[in-house]
Amino acid sequence: MGVEKVPKYDIPTVKVDYVFIELDKMKPHEQLVQKELEGFIESVTGSGIFWKPMLLAKVPGGDMYLIVDGHHRWAGLQKLGAKRAPSVILDYFSDDVNVYTWYPAFKGDLNAVLERLRGEGLEVVEDPEAEEKAERGEIAFALVGEKSFAIPGGLDEQKKVSKVLDEMSVEGKIELIYYGLKEDAREDMDRGEIDYVFIRKAPTKEEVMELVKRGEVYSPKTTRHVLPFNPDKIDVKLEELF
After folding, report:
1. Terminal CA-to-CA distance of the chain, rounded, Å?
2. For a 10 Å CB count at each end of the chain, is N or C smaller?
3. Apex CA 161: angle with CA 102 and CA 59, to 5°?
4. CA–CA distance from 27 to each of 184, 214, 237 (Å)?
C-alpha cells in the first residue's frame, strides 16, 4: 500500500476505558486493502490477543457507529466469525478531533503512470491551475511535479487512481509514498526523492458522516484523523469476541 510519512505530533498515549460494540453496528468509510486485512488476521490468530481498540463515533440519528480507526480489524474479525470488538467512542464533532487527507506520491516513470490512469478511463489533462482546483474540490486529483495535470471527477475517479497506484506499487513499477502533509511532499520532491504528488481536498467531518449514511465509502487512505490521544494497548483474548 506504500510507505507513510506521518507528521510528528505531540499526542499522549493514554489508558482508555472501552466498551464492547457489535461488529454489525459499525460502518466503514474507506475501502479495505487486502494485504492489510490478511496481515491483521494472521497477527490476531497467531497471538490470540486483540490489543488495539476500535475507535468509533456515533452516527447521528441511529444506532450505528462510524469506524474512525480500525477498518481492517473490523473486517478481519467479521471474517473470523467474531461478533463484537472492544471500542472507544469518540466525540467526533469535538474541536479536538480533526480530519485531513493523505497525499499519494510516487517516484517512477510519469508516462507509465499516465498510461495506466488513462487505461482506467480517467481523463488526465495538463492544467497549470490543477492544484488550486483540487484544493477547492472541483476535480478528483491534481498531479503535481515538473508539470501539473488535472484529473476531473469525484469519488469514483479517486478510487480508480488509488487502484492504479496500488497495483503499480505491488508490481514494482513505482515507489509509492503517502504524505500526511503536502509541504513534506514538496520538500522531498525538491530533493529528488519523489517525482510527483497527487493533491486533493480533504473531506470534512460532515462529509464523512453523510457518506456513511448513504452507505458509501472513500478510496483507501482518503481520511487522516488526528485525535487528542492515542489509546494504550489493551489485552483482550480473541475468544472473548465471539
Report:
1. 30
2. C
3. 55
4. 32, 11, 23
Q: Angle at CA 216, nearest 5°, toward 214 and 218? A: 140
List phi, psi (to 5°) of 49: -125, 135
Closest CA to 100 of 211, 193, 178, 197: 178
Sign of the CA dihedral with 112 first, then 184, 142, and 120 last: positive
- Which residue out of 30, 131, 135, 183 is catalytically annotated? 30
CA distances from 5 to 11, 72, 158, 175 (A): 16, 20, 20, 13
Question: In a structure prediction context, what are the per-residue pLDDT tens digits for the chain, which is 242 residues long?
Answer: 668 898 888 899 999 999 999 999 999 999 998 888 999 999 999 999 999 999 999 999 889 999 999 999 999 999 999 999 999 999 999 999 999 999 999 999 999 999 999 999 999 999 999 999 999 999 999 999 999 999 999 999 999 999 999 999 989 999 999 999 999 999 999 999 999 999 999 999 999 999 999 999 999 999 999 999 999 999 999 999 99
How far, in Å, CA of 40 to CA of 76, rounded? 7
Q: State yes or no: is 167 an active-site residue.
A: no
What is the Cα–Cα distance from 18 to 32, expressed in whole angstroms? 24
Q: Which of 155, 181, 160 is nearest to 113 (CA)?
A: 160
Phi and psi torsions of 80, nearest 5°: -80, -10
Burial 128-146 (b: 16+ CB within 10 A, else e): eebbebbeeeebbbbbbbe
